[in-house]
Design brief:
single chain, mainly alpha, 9 helices, membrane, DUF4013 domain-containing protein, transmembrane, transmembrane helix
Length: 218
Amino acid sequence: MELYEANTNKGFIQTSKNSWKTIMLLVPVLFLMYILLLIVQNAFLSQLPSWEMAGTVIFMLASLVISSVGYFILAGCYLYSDGEHPFSYISQVLKEKGGSFLFTTVLYISLVLLGFLFFVLPGVLIGLFGIFYPFIVLEGEKKGLAALKESFHLVKKCFFKVLLYYILFYLLYIALGTPIAVVLWENSWIGEAAAGALVIPVEAFYYYKLYRKTADHT
C-alpha cells in the first residue's frame, strides 16, 4: 500500500497532531457501540436469564469486534504522519482494506468462539495469538487465515509481552470504569462503556507499537 510505504520510510509510528482529531471522534463512537452492545445484552438476559453464560460469551465476542475495529482504524491513524488529511486517509483505508478486514474478523471471531466451546482456555489463546491481525491486514496483502497465521507467528515471538499488555489494559479498564460505576451505580454499565471506549486507543497504540517492533525484527 503506497501510503503505508511512504510513511514507514519516515520512521516508526509518527503520530500527527491531527491524529488526535480522529481519536477524539472515535472515542464517542466506540462509547455508543458499547452502550448499544450492553443494551442488547441486558435485553437478551432479561428475556432469557438462564442463558447468562451465553450472553457473557456473546458480549465478549462483540467486545473483541469493537476492539478490532478500533485497532484497525487507529493503527491507520498512527501510520498517517503528514498530518493534513487523516479523515480522507482513513476513508481510503476502509475502501481498500475494509472488505479484507471484515472477512478476517468474521474468521477470527468464529475461531475464538470455537475455542470457547472447548473449555474456554483455547478461546483465550486464539484471541491473544490473533490480536495482530488488524495491523497485518492494514499493512499488507494478507487476509483471512493467512493474516491470522502471520499474527500467530509474530505473537509467538512476544507472547509474554502481549499477555502482560492484556493484563495491564484489563486493570486499566477496571480502574477507569469503577469510579464511573460507583457514581452512576444505578447505571453502572455506562462506566463499562466509557472505560472500554477510553482504553481502546491506548491498546491500539501499544499493540501496534509491539507489532511493528516484532515484525521489523523478523
